[in-house]
Amino acid sequence: MPIQIKQNSRTRHVRDLGEFSVVSGAIRFTDPCYANDVWCKGSMPAANGKYQAQIGFFRDPYDERSMLEKIDQFKYLLHYHAKFGEKYKDHLFSFEKLVSKARDQANWDGKLQSVERIFQLIKEEPDVEKQRIYKELADDAVEWYSKCYVSEEYNYWEKQSWLLFEINSTFAHARHSISTRPSKFRALMLDQHSQHLTEDQIREKANKIEAEERRDFIANLERKITDLQDTYSAGKPLRTHFLRIKHESVPSFNPIENGKWHFNTNFDVGVDSGQAGFFDELWYERYNGDRNNQDLSSYFNLCTLSSGGNHDRSVKKSMKEGGVFDFGANSHTAHGDGSAPLFYRLNKAGEVIEAAYLYDVNFEECENALNDNKATIKQKVK
After folding, report:
1. Radius of gyration of the chain from Cα atoms?
2. Looking at the whole model, is its pTM more than 0.90?
């Protein structure tokens, strides 16, 4: 029974991919890199003629949270190095190693998955002054991240455990970036021998190098934050929301949530190359994704359609997520490998005239619709 579709997120961009033909009276639904003998593919009768393909894009809510998380991470690094970079410059690296050790221990034994693990390690530090400094740094990190937007969003983890993970991940971004360039110090050592520099002169030059490095690092952080904020404001990153096709007998593409669709439960459309497509059945039987059954150029052309091929070169690279050729259309999926949820519409003859891989469907509502249909049928039978 046809059901109404409800998508979780709105489509942000739509792009027409072009046309292809079905001449064999059937469409193959498959990952384009599959051979004929795989089990996770299927075919259905389809109206012959021209089909138009269209791809839509959305921003996954998880990607949105991840982007905000990255922004918070880099903002904290900026705060951390601005506040402590000069004051505790000889202790930052060792503190970051301590945080990493706390995270590693939590992974190894699965116990005390919380930020308290850091404070336990600090108490084990024999140097009282280092203890004081490390505690100040740890308190500052916990206070900062406890106020972050993402700490409220990632509520499926126990909060303190999440803080330990987040603080460690943040330092991983900068652990190598903040270190001074070895080439500069090699040059300094050469200067020492060639110019007979005193220890004070060497120390002065080394301090100057460190100050320059810190300024460069801070400037890079500020640029990174600006770039991330601009990317977020532009609605990115984007994933494939859907790939859909329609027969020439269908006047135009209507919003997916208009009308009703059949949800395919007859076979699984597996995905192992991060792609799924629609292909003329007989064409695919002959020229399929088995690289051993054809010349390599045809195989690679088929399996790289999602890069956009030679179609629409004016489109930005990040938007080249799909393509068409004479007998098929293909695109990247939203989340890589797994399976592609297939929906379709039929004409009066029972042939496919519209089909779509929908990657952001509210399956709970779809399931409710299916159950309602089943209940209605049972009621009519009684």
Report:
1. 29
2. no
Specify the higher pLDDT residue, 9 or 376. Answer: 9
Q: Which two tokens stand for residue 88?
A: 């505790």
Give the separation between CA 333 and CA 243, rounded to whole angstroms. 9
**The two three-digit tokens of residue 52, written as one number:** 């138009």
User: Three-class SS of residue 155?
Assistant: coil
Question: Distance (Å, rounded) from C-alpha 36 to C-alpha 282?
Answer: 11
- In our burial notation (b when 16+ CB lie closer than 10 A, e otherwise), range 359-381 reads bbbeeeebeebeeeeeeeeeeee
The secondary structure of 52-94 as a DSSP string is EEEEEEE--HHHHHHHHHHHHHHHHHHHHHHHHTTTTTTTHHH
Of 166, 176, 173, 156, nearest in space to 106 by CA? 166
pLDDT score recorded for residue 178: 45
Residue 31 and residue 289 in contact, taking contact as beta carbons nearer than 8 Å? yes
Q: Which is it for the CA torsion 21, 23, 28, 29, positive or negative?
A: positive
Query: Can you give the pLDDT at residue 78?
Result: 86
What pLDDT score was predicted for residue 369? Answer: 52
pLDDT in tens, 280-335: 999 888 877 665 555 556 666 666 666 554 434 443 444 457 888 889 999 999 98
| Angle of helix 116-123 versus helix 128-146 axis, rounded to 10 | 170
Q: What is the pLDDT at residue 192? A: 55
Cα(313)–Cα(14) distance, integer angstroms: 16
Is-contact 134 95, C-beta < 8 A? yes
Nearest-angstrom CA–CA distance, 106 and 297: 49
Q: For residues 35 and 30, what is the distance between their CA atoms, to the nearest angstrom?
A: 9
Which tokens belong to 373?
A: 């249909």
Of 221, 190, 216, the closest CA to residue 205 belongs to 190
Strand ordering across the sheet containing 26-30:
42-45, 26-30, 275-280, 328-332, 322-325
Neighbours of 207 (CB within 10 A): 11
Instruction: Report whether pLDDT(242) > 90.
Output: yes
Distance of CA 203 to the CA centre of its chain: 46
